[in-house]
Design brief:
12 helices
Length: 276
């Protein structure tokens, strides 16, 4: 089931995401409770990573911390706000790619070229970004359950977008084409990661291994369609050419598909601007 981000209190959720100073709590005295927002978010991610999104609740997070659910509300208003924080924390794993370039100690950085540059000068950065995002999704497959229809608007999510834009900037795409390239790349990574995550989870969810599932159906299909190869020659040829371990096949499909997309970006960058 799809989960929508940003369902909690906008003021408090954004304040937590962006690390705004906490408002003083009136009517409270004594030592501060021994919890923190960071600890609660980490526990929430641990629950979702190990048990899935459906198991996530304030009670489950509290139990992992040895506290009651009520003890968490002092720090996080509710599950909706916690989910926003968890999503942004997961994407913060891409932060090492989001660092701005270091300025030269002897002067400002050189101005980028006025026009498009060779693809080799930007596609390596885009590939690194895509690989990092793909790996992040597979480490935290519950993130794929969170719809992108309404972004979390946290610093890590926006930094991931900024990193991709910075990587693509040397390609010299006009704004409309740049928007299309960003959308295509992000959805490509997300879509393939979702399929990979679902494949990994299928055996546990159904009680049938991938191997047994394919054997049962391919055997039956051969009985029902003995002329399969002649009816679907291109598909048969493709299957024969891309055989191998499923996980290796998925990784190769990711790399090949990404390369095709980047070839398209390069060709688009080299093409004349579309007429108005």
């Amino acid at each position: 089931m799809t989960v929508y981000a940003g369902q909690g209190d906008a003021r408090r959720s954004l304040a937590l995401l962006w690390g705004a100073p906490e408002e003083p709590r009136t009517g409270r005295s004594g030592p501060k409770p021994g919890l923190s927002v960071d600890a609660i978010v980490s526990a929430g991610i641990a629950v979702a990573d190990s048990e899935g999104m459906d198991a996530l609740s304030m009670r489950a997070v509290g139990e992992r911390l040895g506290r009651t659910a009520m003890a968490l509300y002092t720090y996080v208003p509710g599950k909706a706000e916690l989910l926003d924080l968890m999503h942004d924390r997961a994407l913060a794993e891409l932060a090492e790619l989001a660092e701005p370039p270091v300025e030269s100690p002897v002067g400002p950085p050189a101005e980028p070229p006025a026009g498009p540059v060779a693809p080799e000068e930007w596609r390596a950065a885009v590939t690194a970004w895509a690989e990092a995002l793909y790996a992040c999704y597979l480490r935290h497959p519950w993130v794929l359950r969170i719809s992108q229809a309404r972004p979390v608007l946290g610093p890590a999510e926006l930094a991931a977008m900024e990193t991709l834009l910075r990587a693509l900037k040397p390609a010299g795409l006009d704004p409309q084409r740049l928007r299309g390239a960003v959308t295509a790349l992000w959805q490509f990574v997300r879509g393939l990661a979702a399929t990979a995550a679902e494949t990994r989870a299928a055996a546990a969810a159904t009680g049938v291994s991938d191997e047994d599932w394919w054997i049962a159906r391919s055997t039956r299909l051969a009985e029902l369609a003995p002329d399969f190869a002649s009816r679907f020659p291109l598909l048969t040829g493709l299957q024969g050419a891309t055989g191998g371990a499923p996980e290796a096949g998925r990784r190769e499909a990711f790399r090949t598909g990404l390369a095709v997309l980047l070839d398209g970006v390069a060709a688009t960058a080299a093409a004349p601007p579309a007429s108005a």
